[in-house]
Every structure is written in structure tokens, then in C-alpha cells.
Specification:
The protein is an alpha+beta fold and 841 residues long. It folds into 5 domains: 217 residues, FAD/NAD(P)-binding domain (3-Layer(bba) Sandwich); 105 residues, FAD/NAD(P)-binding domain; 136 residues, Sandwich (Jelly Rolls); 122 residues, Jelly Rolls; 195 residues, no CATH class. Helices cover 29% and strands 25% of the residues. The chain contains 25 helices and 43 strands. Strands 1, 2, 5, 6, 9, 10 and 19 form a 7-stranded mixed β-sheet that branches. A 5-stranded parallel β-sheet has the order 11-18-12-13-14. Helix 9 crosses helix 10. It starts with a strand and ends with a helix. The C terminus is likely disordered.
Length: 841
């Protein structure tokens, strides 16, 4: 049996249902093809009772079906009723097996279409025939001939699978229908997109169920989740209903257990069930069999589409999640718009047109929204892989501005974590007074703030009249997570600039092309070695994130040699001098390294004598350390052992990711607490330091005080972006803090407290001569309560060490110590064998 329709719509999710409803409203012959026995299988498979959001809120809904935020069940009931009332023609339990064109396109020909209205009358229309009709073969034995095909099949049927040992065990699942089915289980949710977060919240919602729920996030960001979901997740964690593990991935699954690679190393935990929600990919084989091309060969790439959703197969249109638009409101608008276009409406603009038009209104030229989107896409390299539809969504979260020559884009030390793309003109980066480095059209800048969260490292001006796209941190992370070519481009540029900054020696980007073509970024677990003593190899390793320690086996023992923070490199000794590796280098915390091909680096050194000389100097310094240890191994074996144990203790207590740490020499400390009192008196009466807390090894004590981590965990989820890094590396919290407590929960060292600023104390002299006030240091709770403003409860805010930023003389805790017991140091200055050598002498 063969049916003939004007439009065949494949998939009855929000996009397909909206398209079918528009076709029914226009009186177009259509068939909505659904492989299950119900509408909108994606929404149908949402967990029971799930609250469905209607975002983005600023976008107007354009559909013949209603949609507003609400429970899954209510939305499905409404859509079922409306589809029946509107006469939507649905074929249930019918899966499309093939779509094949059955004729040749006839350019410029006019086809007469007779449309039958609901009241039985007909209307003849003339349309330009753009494509051949298509034959759709269905699983129920029917064939359907359609003049146009709308593919709205989504991606949920093709989930990303866990690829670790044991991932095929029966307690690993990729769907959660009803959270209420599970009780008294240890459940791990893998993935922190919207689906993963909502599953975790559902499983932890009822304490009576007794589930121990943990959600795993491979990074510290929640780039692919809605802000409301992230807020709800953090609130649940604060209430103790679930646990969040960031910078954690799955290493192995066994019956009853899960082994994780965490930021502190490998950990094995009890596990009864794993819910894996790691996203999904397009069903590429089927889509390509229909003649549709993709933007690239990446598994997560999307089909090539025109601004009106038409694919590379003329007459086949792709909408919804398969087009890269997963939000329901977007999908429904696309369903409406595509049917309007097929029906001949060429004047209809997308629903987001007014929003985007307002963004482009301040630019110097008058172009249409579509023209500006294409201009930006074509001229900013990291955006080249986006389709016109993805560009629209991308620009909803980004800004575009025009700058005149010499306009300042941002100043050195300005806060900011956005990324800039140069669509026209040039940016000038001031690396020294009067010395500028140009960044030309098509490239990006600001990636340091994006990756590390540090303040701006240089002043950047426009080198010519320019147009720049400012990409928010959220939009940039989402771009990198959903678009592999963009991630590769940003990674390559950031790697190139890190190498240029590190090696100097007059290198240019062109010099590094061969190096970058073979470079590889590796994630290294805590405790994992990137180099092992005695191994062969000549590759160079640059530490991109985290830190490493260097050890050498002497007298059968592993002896600590040095500490390497992010921005260091190792491996040059084997490359220059030949022979096996002379030491072991392993990660102190979860880290990232850039592996540079040794042969390519050797060619670069041969071409750049200054680089070779730099590498030889570094090698000589390391050889001196090795020689010193070897020469003293007998006479100072006890000192060497003691130093190695001390270094291990410090690394185990977070010094591995610190940039500045407070240490107290217990031999010198007299317990006067002047350090705590000085801290409080320098910070509105609230101390950022707990001297007695923390761990001690031998005479060395690490009190509870901020380490100012290289990649601060506290910055991972700060809604008002109130946490920044200052010009001297200090991590501080500004006045925009809203007291949400996310930073306190994310800090692994317990150095952040939530408190309100106490009443103002009388001055020190008033206390000394007249007994006014509570005296030096932090006032007691009793004094605070007695002197508080009646009826006014001050809101709590996050409080942490800021290294006394802006206070003359530096950290008050160090200045106030009468015995010199308190010192603040960078780990690389303290953890060095040179200090050992000085002490030994």
C-alpha cells in the first residue's frame, strides 16, 4: 500500500508534532510517522513527574500546540488532546527504514498542487518544484510518497555509551523512567547535563527511599545544564541529599562497585546502580543513507543545513535536536517555520529574529540578521563548524561590538572570563610599555581568562576599526563541549600561546606549526607518571594544568628532587643528551600535560639556537641537582629521607595545586595567635585563618588557610562571578557575593566560611585605655549579638584569605608573627632540593 502526501514528518517529538500541527492547520496533506505507540517519545521517556522547563524565556513560542513549563504528564496530555482536535494524521508503530528520491529535480519548473481543505473544498496552488519526491519505506510494510520530508527524529535513541571495563554489566543503564522504583541503593549518575542532574535530583528527592546518590562531573563546570538545574543540584548537595564529585571519571565497573579516577587519585566505592546520562549523537548512518551530509566527520557533528532547515538532500528538512537545537521551544518554532516555508511562505522570519536584530543594531553596516550571522561564522575560525541554526543559538548567549582604532577592549587586571573572536580588524596585546603583539582577523584572545579564571593578563586595544564577538564563559564552554572543531581550535591557539610565552627565544606562531600538528593533550591522574626513570623516549612534556613532582631512585629509595607547577616543562635531558630518562615525573593532583613530539622539537631547536641554549641551561640546572643528591646520598641519607617525607606530606595536603601557601614552623611558633588576630583586624573583624586546624608533619604545620590554587575549585560555580584572581595571584571574593555557599562546598580544603560582617569595633587605643570593644582579633559571638543593630540581620557571605590584597606590607599574618614562624611561599620555592642543600651545608 502506498500513500501520497505533501509532507512526511519523521518523529513526533516537539519539533515533529509542531510541524504536523501546522500542516493540519494549513490543510496540507501530511503524515506524522512515529515508531512507538505514543507521541513524543523523548518527553514520554522523561522520568516520572519531571518538571519540564520552557526556556529560553525571552523567546516567543510560535506553534499550533501549546507549551509552558510544567509536569511531563500534563504536557503530554495536552499535546495528545490538541493533536486529536487539530486532525493531525499520525502513523504509530511505524519506523522509517529508508528514504529514497524517486525522480530528478527540474530547475525552474512549476508544479500545480491541489490542496484539500477540512471542509471538503479544494484549492489549486502553483509552487516552484525544488526537489524530487521521496519514497519512505516503513516497518509496517507501507510506502509513503512525499514531496517534502521533515526529519525530526532527535538523538535520544543513540546515547553516548560508557567505554570502560564492566560498562556492559546489567546495573548500568542509560534511561531512568521512575526514580521511585529504587530504594536503599548506592546510585551513581554519570553526566551533569540537564538529564543527569534531573535524574540525580529525582533519585534523591525522597529521603524515605534511602538512596545514596552521587553525581559525577568530569570537570568543575556545568556547561551543558540550565542554570536553574545547577542551582537545584547545589541546594540538594548543601542539604545533604546527594553528593557531587567534580573532576572525576569512571575507570572501571564491577558487580557492586565502581572505581573512579578522582582529582586525588583512584578510589573504589560501593555501587548498586549506574545511571549514565552522557548525551547522545545523531543516528549518522541512517541520516547519511538519505543523502544528507554532515558538517564534519566527528561523531557529534550535525547535518549541513540551510537557514531554512533544508539539508544537502533537496526537499529533506532537518529540525529539532538532530539540527543541534535541543530546547523544546526552539524545536516547536522550527516545526512551525519549516512547514510555512514548504508551503511557500518566504517572508516568515525565525522567532528569535528581533532578539538577534537588536544585538546587531549597533554595528556600522546595515545587514540582515542572516548576513551578520554568516559574516561572523565565516570570519571567526572557531565558529566555522557551526551551522546557521547553531549560530543563531550561539549568538543568543554572546555579544558583538564595533571598536574604533585604539579603543580599549579590556585593561590589564580587569576581571573577566569571556573569550573574544576577531571578525574584522585587529587586536593589539600590550606585553610591555610601547610593545604590542598583533592578533589578526579570524583569531581569538582572552582564552587565558576562560581556561584559568585569572584576571586579564594584558591590556588589549583595537589595532584598527574592528568587529569583535564577545563569547561569555558559559557560551564558550558550551561551544567547546558540543562542537569538536571549535574545541580543537581553541585548544590549539591556547597551546600555541602557552608555548610562545614559556620558551620565548624569538619564536613565532609559524615556528610552532610542526610542533602543534603533532602535539597531544593528555589528562594525567594523581600519582600517574608521565616519565619513568630508565625508560627510553625523547618527547617533551609541558604541564598545562596541575603540577608534578620529580623523583629519583637512590639507594633503593625514591628521593624527592623538585616540584613543577603549571607552566613548567620536562624531558629535555633525554632529547639533548640522549640515553634513558634520568628521573620519574608524576602528577601531584589530576593534571593536564601537552606532549610535544621529541623529533619535531629537536628540529625546532636546530633552527632556533636561542631555544637550544635555553633548553641546555634548564638541563644543566637539573643535572646539578642530580649530581648534588648523588654526591651527598651517603652522608646525608637521613636528611634526604626526611626531606622526601616532608615533601610528600605537603603534596598530600594540597600544596600540589597551590600558588601561595601559609606554613608554620612549630619549632618557632609560641601559640600567641597574633596571626589570627591580625587577620581579623585587617578584614572587618573576621579571621580568614585557623592556626590550630590543619595537619602537621614533624615541625611543619599547614593551617586552614587558602592555598590560592592554580585552578581554584571555588570558582567552579559562582552564580554572580564574584570570585577572581588578582594581579599577584591572590584569589579573592568581591562584594557581589550572594552567599549561596557554592564556593564553600566546592573547596576541598575547608578554607571558606560563611558569615556576616560583625558590628564595627572601637579602635585599638579605645580598648587599651578605656576598655571599649572586644579587643584585638575576632569579636566573640556574645559581643556581636549585644552590639548588633536591633532588628537587622546581616546576610552571610563567603569569606576567605585574600593574601591581604591592597594592604600595604603584605599578609598581616606573617607581619604579626613575633618569631618568624609563619611564612607564605609558592610551592616551587619551598619544595626544592636547593633548600635541602643549603640546610645540609
Amino acid at each position: 500500500m502506498t500513500d501520497r502526501v505533501r509532507i512526511a514528518i519523521v518523529g513526533s517529538g516537539p519539533a515533529g508534532l509542531s510541524a504536523a500541527a501546522r500542516a493540519a492547520a494549513l490543510g496540507l496533506s501530511h503524515l506524522l510517522i512515529e515508531k512507538t505507540d505514543h507521541l513524543s517519545d523523548t518527553i514520554f521517556k522523561y522520568q516520572k513527574g519531571k518538571h519540564v522547563m520552557a526556556t529560553p524565556s525571552q523567546l516567543v513560542l510560535r506553534s499550533d500546540c501549546d507549551f509552558e513549563a510544567g509536569k511531563r504528564e500534563a504536557i503530554l496530555d495536552r499535546w495528545n488532546a490538541q493533536a486529536a482536535d487539530q486532525g493531525v494524521n499520525v502513523a504509530y508503530n511505524a519506523e522509517v527504514k529508508a528514504i529514497v528520491g524517486i525522480g530528478d529535480p527540474i530547475p525552474g519548473s512549476i508544479q500545480k498542487i491541489v490542496e484539500r481543505r477540512r471542509d471538503g473544498t479544494t484549492e489549486t496552488k502553483e509552487i516552484q518544484r525544488l526537489a524530487p519526491p521521496y519514497r519512505l519505506t516503513l516497518s509496517d510494510g507501507r510506502d509513503v510518497i512525499a514531496d517534502a520530508v521533515v526529519m525530526a527524529i532527535g538523538t535520544q535513541g543513540n546515547p553516548n555509551l560508557m567505554r570502560v571495563p564492566g560498562a556492559d554489566l546489567p546495573h548500568v543503564q542509560y534511561q531512568l523512567d521512575d526514580p521511585g522504583e529504587y530504594n536503599d541503593e548506592h546510585i551513581f549518575v554519570v553526566g551533569t547535563g540537564d538529564a543527569g542532574i534531573e535524574n540525580a535530583l529525582g533519585l534523591a528527592a525522597d529521603e524515605a527511599q534511602g538512596n545514596a546518590v552521587t553525581i559525577l562531573n568530569r570537570s568543575t563546570e556545568f556547561a551543558s545544564a540550565k542554570a536553574a538545574n545547577v542551582k537545584a543540584l547545589m541546594a540538594a548537595a548543601e542539604a545533604g541529599r546527594l553528593a557531587i564529585m567534580t573532576e572525576t571519571t569512571t575507570a572501571k565497573v564491577e558487580p557492586g562497585f565502581i572505581t573512579l579516577d578522582s582529582r586525588d587519585g583512584e578510589v573504589k566505592l560501593k555501587c548498586d546502580r549506574i545511571i549514565a546520562r552522557m548525551g547522545s549523537a545523531p543516528p549518522r548512518a541512517f541520516v547519511e543513507s538519505c543523502g544528507i551530509e554532515f558538517t564534519s566527520g566527528d561523531r557529534l557533528a550535525f547535518p549541513k543545513l540551510s537557514p531554512v532547515f533544508e539539508s544537502t538532500a533537496p526537499g529533506i528538512f532537518v529540525i529539532g535536536a538532530l539540527a543541534g537545537y535541543p530546547l523544546i521551544k526552539h524545536c516547536m518554532n522550527q516545526g512551525y517555520d519549516v512547514v510555512e516555508y514548504i508551503n511557500g511562505n518566504r517572508d516568515l522570519k525565525p522567532a528569535d529574529e528581533p532578539i538577534l536584530a537588536a544585538k546587531f543594531a549597533g554595528l556600522p553596516e546595515k545587514k540582515s540578521v542572516a548576513d551578520w550571522l554568516e559574516y561572523l561564522r565565516a570570519n571567526v575560525a572557531v565558529l566555522e563548524g557551526l551551522s546557521p541554526l547553531q549560530m543563531r543559538e550561539f549568538m543568543l548567549d554572546s555579544e558583538v561590538r564595533a571598536y574604533r582604532r585604539d579603543d580599549v577592549i579590556f585593561e590589564k587586571f580587569d576581571p573577566g572570563s569571556s573569550l573574544f573572536g576577531i571578525a574584522r580588524g585587529q587586536a593589539l596585546v600590550e606585553v610591555a610599555p610601547g610593545v604590542d603583539i598583533p592578533i589578526d582577523q579570524g583569531s581569538i584572545f582572552g582564552e587565558v581568562g576562560l581556561i584559568s579564571g585569572r584576571r586579564r593578563g594584558a591590556t588589549v586595544r583595537a589595532g584598527a576599526d574592528s568587529i569583535m564577538v564577545e563569547v561569555s564563559r558559559t557560551a564558550a564552554l558550551k561551544l567547546m563541549s558540543s562542537n569538536p572543531p571549535a574545541k580543537r581550535a581553541i585548544t590549539r591557539i591556547s597551546t600555541e600561546r602557552q608555548l610562545l610565552q614559556m620558551f620565548g627565544a624569538g619564536l613565532t606562531p609559524a615556528d610552532l606549526a610542526d610542533i602543534l600538528d603533532t602535539a597531544e593533550i593528555r589528562t594525567v591522574k594523581a600519582g600517574e607518571a608521565i616519565l619513568s626513570e630508565g625508560d627510553l623516549g625523547n618527547d617533551i612534556y609541558v604541564i598545562r594544568v596541575g603540577s608534578m613532582i620529580v623523583e629519583k631512585k637512590i639507594g633503593g629509595k625514591n628521593v624527592f628532587l623538585s616540584y613543577l607547577p603549571a607552566g613548567s616543562y620536562v624531558g629535555e635531558m633525554a632529547l639533548i643528551a640522549g640515553g634513558p630518562r634520568t628521573a620519574t615525573v608524576k602528577a601531584t593532583v589530576k593534571s593536564e600535560v601537552i606532549r610535544l613530539n621529541g623529533d619535531a622539537f629537536a628540529r625546532l631547536m636546530a633552527a632556533k639556537p636561542a631555544l637550544l641554549e635555553r633548553a641546555r641551561r634548564d638541563m644543566a640546572a637539573r643535572q646539578d641537582v642530580n649530581a648534588f643528591i648523588e654526591s651527598r646520598k651517603d652522608s646525608f641519607s637521613t636528611v634526604v629521607d626526611m626531606y622526601s617525607e616532608t615533601a610528600k606530606f605537603l603534596v598530600d595536603n594540597g600544596i600540589g595545586e597551590a600558588t601561595d601557601v601559609l606554613l608554620i614552623d612549630e619549632h618557632l611558633c609560641v601559640g600567641c595567635d597574633n596571626c589570627e588576630k591580625a587577620c581579623a583586624d585587617s578584614h572587618d573583624g573576621l579571621s580568614r585563618l585557623d592556626r590550630e586546624a590543619g595537619r602537621t608533619y614533624a615541625h611543619l604545620h599547614v593551617p586552614t588557610s587558602c592555598r590560592h590554587c592554580e585552578h581554584p575549585h571555588c570558582m567552579a560555580d559562582c552564580p554572580p562571578n564574584a570570585i577572581h584572581r588578582g594581579p599577584d595571584g591572590e584569589v579573592f571574593i568581591d562584594e557581589t557575593c550572594i552567599g549561596c555557599g557554592n564556593c564553600q562546598r566546592n573547596c576541598p580544603y575547608g578554607v571558606i566560611r560563611m558569615d556576616s560582617v560583625p558590628p564595627r569595633k572601637p579602635g585599638l587605643l579605645s580598648w587599651m585605655f578605656f576598655g571599649a570593644g572586644p579587643g584585638p582579633g575576632e569579636p566573640s559571638k556574645k559581643w556581636r549579638a549585644k552590639n548588633a543593630e536591633p532588628g537587622v540581620e546581616k546576610p552571610k557571605k563567603a569569606i576567605k584569605c585574600d593574601m591581604c590584597s591592597g594592604i600595604e606590607g603584605g599578609p598581616a599574618c606573617v607581619r604579626a608573627c613575633p618569631t618568624g614562624a609563619a611564612i607564605r611561599v609558592a610551592p616551587e620555592d619551598f619544595l626544592t632540593v636547593a633548600r635541602l642543600g643549603g640546610e645540609a651545608r
